[in-house]
What does this fold into?
Amino acid sequence: MFLKNTKYVHLAIAACIFFAMYACKSIEVPSLPEMEPVPETFLDITDSSSIGDISWKEFFNDPNLVYLIEEGLDNNLDLLAAFERIEIARTQYRISKGALYPTMDGIVRYRSGDIRPNLLGGTINGDRNVVNRLENNFIGFQSTWEIDVWGKLRDRKEANLEAFMATEKGRHLMVTNIVAEIAKLYYELLGMDIELETIERNIEFQEMALELIKIQKMAGRATELAVQQFSAQLLSTKSLAFEKRQEILETENYLNFILGRFPEPIARASSLLEIKLPYGMEVGIPSDMLLRRPDIQQAEHELRAANFNVEAARKEFLPSFSFTPYVGLNDRSLPAALKMPGGLTIGLLGGLTTPIFAQNRIQAGFDQAVANNKIALYNYQQRILDGYQEVSNKLLRLDNLRNVYSLRDEETAVLLNAVSTSNELFRGGYATYLEVITAQSRVLEAELNKTNTRIQMFLTVVDLYRALGGGWN
It folds into this structure.
C-alpha cells in the first residue's frame, strides 16, 4: 500500500514540475520599445568637461552664499525627511536579502488526548511515521529554508536594491534642488537690493526736480499743473520703494524657511555687480550630462528594479522547494522526554509547492510587473528628453541675456545723459516739464530692467548648473 502511494506521489510531483515548467516557458517577457538615440552635442559644444562636475563650494564664489548652502543642507526639513525615506528603502532591501537565508523558530507544542488512526493507515493528520511523532508534546527549534533554485528571491533582492539606490538618487536630486533654490533666492536678494538703491536714487533726483519746478512756478515760468505732475511722479516712485522693501522681506523669510530657521536678516554681499558670474562655457556632451543628473540616475535605477520585478514575477510560475529541519524533545509528555534519552528528535521535512490553481493570480501579477516596467522605461525616456531640452533652453537663454544686458547697459547710460540734458534745457527754457518727467521715468525703468536682466543671468546660470547635475556631490 505504501509503495503504491509513493508511486502516485512521484507521478504527482513529476506532473507538477512539468506543468510549471511549461507554464513558465509559455510566459515570454514582452520586448520594450527602443529608445531614440541622444544627440551627440549641445548647440555644437563638444567639450567633454562639464560645469556639473564642479563642487558647489567651488562653483559659487561668494562666501556668504556658501555658508547659507551649508546651513540649508544641514537643517532643511525636506532633506531630513528624505534621509528617513532612504532608511525605509534600506530596511526593505535588508528584508528581501534575508529571504535568501533560513529562518529559525522556537517551538513549544502541547497536546492532550490520543491520535486516532484513519482508514488509510496513518493518523487523522497525515502519515503515522512522521506526524504521529510531531503531534506529540514537542519543545525545540525548527528552521525553514526556501531553496532559491530559479533565482526568484535573488531577483526580488536586486529589485529592492535598485529601489534603494533610486531613493538615494532622489536625495541627491533634492540636494541639487535645494542648492539651486538657495542660490537663486540669494541672487534675487542682491538684485532687489540694487533695485531698491536705484529707486531711492531716483527719488532724490525727483525731489530735486520737484523743488526746481516749484521755484520755476514762483518765478512765473511754470504752472501748478507742472508741480502736480512732478509730485505725482515722486509719490509713485516712493510707493515703489515700499513695495520693494516688502518684497525683500518676504524673500528673506522664505530663504530662512528653506534653511530651516526662523526669520532673521540674511548676510549677503554688498552688490550683485561686484560678484563674478559663476559660469564657464564647458557644458559637456549629452551622454556625460546624463551621467550626472540625479533624476535620470533615479529613473535608471527604477527601470532596473522594474526589470528584476518582471523576472521575479515570471518565475512565480515555477515550483518552489523548501526544507524544514527540526530538533527538540518529543514524547507523549514533556517530563518523560526530559528523563528519557529517546525523547530527542531530529528530523528533516521537504516541501514542493506548485502553483497549479493560482495561474490567474500569478498571471495578473506578471502583467502588472510588465506594465510597471514599461512605465519605468517611458519615465526614463521622459527624464532624458526633459534634461536635454532644459540644458538647450538655458544655454540659448544665457547667450541672449548677455546680449540684452549689454544693450540695456548702453540704454541706461544714454538715458542718464538724457536726464541731465533735459534738466539743463528746462532751466534754460528750452524743454518742457513733461520732457523732464519723461526722461526721469524712462531712466528709472531702464535701470530696473538692466538690474532684472543681470538677476536673470545669475538665475539662468544656477538653473544650468542644476540641469547639468551639479550641486549634489
